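Protocol step 4 of 5: obtain the predicted structure for the target chain.
Materials: sequence only (see below). No template structures provided, no constraints applied. The aim of this step is simply to have a reference model before the mutagenesis design in step 5. Sequence pasted as it appears in the construct record:
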Amino acid sequence: MENVRAAITAVGHFLPEDKMTNADLEKLVDTSDEWIQTRTGIKERRILKDPDKATSYMATEAAKEILRKSGVSPEEIELVIIATVTPDMFFPATACMVAANIGATNAWAFDVSAACSGFLFALSTGARFIESGKHKKVLVIGADKMSSIVDYSDRTTCILFGDGAAGVLLEPDTSGHGILDSIEHSDGSQWSALCMLGGGSLNPSSAETIANGWHYLHQEGQPVFKSAVKGMADVAAEIMEQNGLTADDVRYLVPHQANLRIIDATARRMGVTMDKVMLNIERYGNTTAATIPLCLADWESELKKGDNLVLAAFGGGFTWGSAYVKWAYDSAPSEA
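Step 4 output (structure tokens):
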């Protein structure tokens, strides 16, 4: 019996046109371009300013690009998974709206909420449906409108986040390419270090929750940083050891773009030099579930069939994970 893997056969992305630079943030909070770049590596981030557009809009545009580039019709898509912590609303799932927007009339759809690990968790989930033989074409998209939950008077968090969406098409592969392995972890004991307290069933929306600022992202910087450094570095090394990979075998590390120092620590733990690390944090900031697929979109033209990629992320929950991907196609040169 053939060993079926879920291969990435197309990538697509969407970024809002409006940019928020570090200079723009200097006008809002007590910070500086030098301070932000030194501690995070971020120079600017994209912001979806149109109040009538939300996460589903960005995910829809990314999905449309995937379909256009792959030549797959919307009717062929059987499953749509959206990783997000900023859904358009609690329900229906943003994935249902995206499927309807692109005309995926034969697909079922659901959201995955795992914060910055969301895309990896969704990718692993989507892969299982391909490997089992249940589906042949699955869309997995990470999308977040982080500007909708960021407090732009909090200088510790507002400098970090941006808006964006990106994703992949998964299809069966029997030639040894695709998602060859994945590792997922979670630890809910430290949930309060990175969360949004208001709006759920514990603290339903009220005048009090609004006054308390509970509808904004809350992050305790040092505990999150320390856990992220260890979690991402360890899980990236774990996936390499589990699959007998050396640093020379890895074409690229594709890390969640949270903080340049965390990414550097992960690369060093793997023994990978920074020229083999996908980085776009300076242009987009932390787009939460969209960071890893945005990297794949930016580097697609450089990837060759057979390239070994290690994907790694850490997010609220806490959640963290990694994936070993053998790239399945020779990419065309990037479009103008």
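Step 4 remarks: The radius of gyration is 19 Å. The longest strand covers residues 163-173.
Proceed to step 5.
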